Amino acid sequence: MTYCVGLKLDAGLVLLSDTRTNAGLDNISCYRKMFFFENPGERIITIMTAGSLSVTQTTIARLEEAIEDELADETTSILKAPTMLRVATIIGDTLSRTRREIAEQCRDLKQQASASMIVAGQRQGGDMRMFLIYPEGNFIEATEDTPFLQIGEHKYGKPILDRVVTPQTDLQDAQKAVLLSMDSTLRSNLSVGMPLDLAVIARDHCGITLRRRIEDGDADFMQMSAAWSNALRDSFGKVTI
User: Fold this and answer.
1) Are 5 and 161 in contact (CB under 8 A)?
2) By the number of CB atoms within 10 A of the CB, which of 57, 68, 78, 200 ranks highest?
């Protein structure tokens, strides 16, 4: 399992993913789940993945192969697509095709082969957009009413996002929100784990503004987690029934 969350705000995009891959209690590994495709100053595309590792890795590899193809055009390469909507369509088609192929290969083994992705970014002259792409290749988009998207083990980290995140949230507070959302998930589900990958993309920057790997035992993260726990306990003690 995994947990990835993305916020689409007036000021930019804030993205966070864990790196744990669990294939059983005695088979836990660490794999990156956040990927960047960038032409600095012209476009930035970020993909976060959850689900079957064979599906997500193959999909990412096929997207990279399509970019490098000498015959690549706006219908096949996400770095040539004219809009973020077209980017999402290319990724959705690639994910759907890959999932079906691997599911067929695993059919006799009765193994699941499913995956979902969050795709976020901006191209020069276009709007920032963020999509949640389902295993079937269809997708939904983040809006002002729902400015965040989640994939993987999302239920533990959703309440704080519902309470504090609005399109007007600034990028600093947004980082705090996604990190506390992840902290809640880490405490409640062992299938989500460190290290974490954090990225910030400021509006109209068309490049990565901040990129950070947060390792297990990171002092700043531990301090934030402890402060949040103390604040919750203090607030709980003040509530009357």
Assistant:
1) yes
2) 78
